[in-house]
Amino acid sequence: IFPPNLGNKEITWMMLEAGAETDVVNSVGRTAAQMAAFVGQHDCVTVINNFFPRERLDYYTKPQGLDKEPKLPVKLAGPLHKIITTTNMHPVKIVLLVKENPLLAEVEALQKCYRVLDLICEKCMKQKDMNEVLAMKMHYISCIFQKCITFLKEREDKLDGFIKSLLKGRDKDGFPVYQEKLIRESIRKFPYCEATLLQQLVRSIAPVEI
């Protein structure tokens, strides 16, 4: 997966899009991401760990089994894929990506998207080569989508209100309490309690008061 100009994240992305496998190991048993981390190419690690092939999402745009309708309308696949593959996981960034696309910024569209994300999360946890990082990411984005739905339904200022809530700091020190609570809530709701990543996050966060 590594081109001659080692560490070029754009070329890493191009190779992934061309079908390069991320779980193949070299002669010393390391994957591309592990080798990139070993030599300090953290941008490449981020690209590899955030890559999600478009065809894996397109699977949900076709009716499966007894379904008459696909779980994800074709028109939503592109905007959703853009969010899935973003490397900036700040909740405000994700809400802005939703807000900038009129197809996505609707209750029904977000409901379909978060349900697909939950299915992908489940598949990541139940597949032979479990991918806890990707599962947690899908779950986290799903939680933000669900909160977007709440604001679209209940607030006149809609997604702008959500963004303001995320950015608002408390009076004494400017700390964004709502944002912290949202992130903690998404971790708490992760449905796979046995996940090592979840346990590490809980151990790190639980002792820290907001």
Automatic annotation (TrEMBL):
Superkingdom in the source lineage: Eukaryota
SUPFAM superfamilies from the UniProt entry: Ankyrin repeat (SSF48403)
InterPro entries, alphabetized: Ankyrin-MYND_dom_contain_2, Ankyrin_rpt-contain_sf
PANTHER family the record matches: ANKYRIN REPEAT AND MYND DOMAIN-CONTAINING PROTEIN 2
Protein name per UniProt: ANKY2 protein
Species the sequence originates in: Zapornia atra (Henderson crake)
Gene designation per UniProt: Ankmy2
